[in-house]
Automatic annotation (TrEMBL):
It comes from the Eukaryota. This is Tetratricopeptide repeat protein. GO terms for biological process: axonemal dynein complex assembly; sperm axoneme assembly. One of its GO terms (cellular component) is cytoplasm. InterPro entries: TPR-like_helical_dom_sf, TPR_rpt, TTC12. SUPFAM superfamilies: TPR-like (SSF48452). It comes from Acrobeloides nanus.
């Protein structure tokens, strides 16, 4: 197997210590590696490890659309982790899911998944009216009725926001 690093290495000094910087010859190598790892771990329901892999894939993201997809996937992973335990322990995970979904929507305003996960995170945080607005925006975006969106709206109907 070929060496994945360029032969020409840069040497830098930090506080008198000598470090070599290895530059991968394929800039998308780590992006693909961590994405595949995250998908595999998520399917195996190892959400904590998948979260770390998605975070690394975000670090190595090469374009805006890909970054939006990884943020959306990480948002879903946070939601899965948040559903796994008591609410008071997992509120930070729901908030992180909201942040990732919001950032993904800034990068790709037409992302159905990001809008849906943002609504799920808002509902989990108790912001039912804002979650309902997200779901209604999603229905406008897809321009048809969707069973999962209608179920999400029905789940929060009648609940009062904080």
């Amino acid at each position: 197997m070929a060496n994945r690093f360029i032969d020409a290495q840069r040497i830098i000094r930090i506080f008198g210590e000598k470090y070599e910087i290895l530059i991968p010859d394929d800039p998308g190598y780590y992006e693909k590696l961590f994405t595949r790892r995250a998908f595999l771990l998520f399917r195996q329901e190892e959400y904590e490890e998948a979260l770390e892999a998605y975070s690394m894939a975000i670090v190595y993201a090469s374009d805006v659309k890909y970054l939006a997809q990884m943020l959306t996937s990480r948002s879903y992973t946070y939601l899965k982790l948040g559903d796994a335990g008591p609410y008071f322990v997992n509120i930070d995970r729901f908030f992180a899911a909201y942040i990732d979904a919001s950032e993904a929507l800034k990068l790709d305003p037409n992302s159905f998944r990001a809008l849906f996960f943002k609504g799920k995170a808002l509902a989990a945080l108790g912001f039912y009216s804002k979650a309902r607005d997200c779901y209604k925006d999603l229905l406008k975006l897809i321009q048809k009725e969707d069973k999962s969106v209608n179920e999400a709206i029905a789940a929060i109907d009648g609940k009062v926001s904080f």
